[in-house]
Amino acid sequence: FRLALIQLHVSAVKSDNLQRACGFVREASAKGAKLVALPECFNSPYGTQHFKEYAEKIPGESTQKLSEIAKECSIYLIGGSIPEEDGGKLYNTCTVFGPDGALLAKHRKVHLFDINVPGKIQFKESETLSPGNSFSMFDTPYCKVGLGICYDMRFAEMAQIYGQKGCQLLIYPGAFNMTTGPAHWELLQRGRAVDNQLYVATVSPARDEKASYVAWGHSTVVNPWGEVIAKAGAEETVVYTDVDLKKLAEIRQQIPILSQKRCDLYGVEMKK
């Protein structure tokens, strides 16, 4: 099946972001994509100073648009993420809609991006955001898909659980920066893919040098052999790739690590 990653240029105008995102979704659908994914914070600038201003309830304006365009194009739409307000708390939340426009999954970013690299970048999502507390998976006629958002990708246990639960594709809307992007963006994707013998796709906003937080870009798809099979540059674009589940099955047969794990010695479990 064909997967499309929309590396969107995100502006400060929410209505423009929504309109242009929907335009790219239509374009991707017309080119045969069955699953289409948007980037982290696709409807608003990324930054702790912006989350409260742009936050919405779910359902709300942005997710209503996503539901409508998924139904119009009859696709599975992974709605990147938006700042969500619920019960007085803010979350970084990804919604997924099916070809009938129904909400299939809602993933609240589990691991908040609190880092301090002296002289390069300091960022603390927990100043404004609360963490999610659950894994998020959804079924399609093609395969089962697991969701994470950006910093979630650094936690190998999360990807391993998704693999144990039958996911063959992991999608991470993310906005790595100009420090962590060149160092770890591709490395982490290849690691998650080869460790669990599944496909990994990441969707970044396009790079905007004038933004307060500059995203690395380079939306990427990695196959279960750890090979990069599709990759964007820094600019606004749509990345297409054909996900070959036959190749996934062949790799798992050739190197059967999933059946060779020593569960008598170690294990990773989902607690809730």
Short description:
By secondary structure, the protein is α/β, with parallel strands linked by helices.
What is the CATH topology assignment? Nitrilase/N-carbamoyl-D-aminoacid amidohydrolase
Q: Give the CATH level 1 class.
A: Alpha Beta
pLDDT < 50 stretches: none
SS summary, helix count: 7
Mean pLDDT: 96
Secondary structure class reads alpha/beta
CATH-level-4 superfamily name: Carbon-nitrogen hydrolase
Strand content: 25-35%
- Which series of helices and strands comes N to C? EHEHHEEEEEEEEHEHEEEEHH
Q: How far is the first residue's CA from the last residue's CA? A: 31 Å
In the CATH hierarchy, the architecture is: 4-Layer Sandwich
The total number of structural domains is 1
Sheet having the most strands:
7 strands, mixed
> Shape from CA axes?
globular
Radius of gyration: 17 Å
Helix content: 25-40%
Total strands: 15
Family: Belongs to the carbon-nitrogen hydrolase superfamily. NIT1/NIT2 family.
Keywords: Hydrolase
GO molecular function, one term: omega-amidase activity
Pfam families: CN_hydrolase
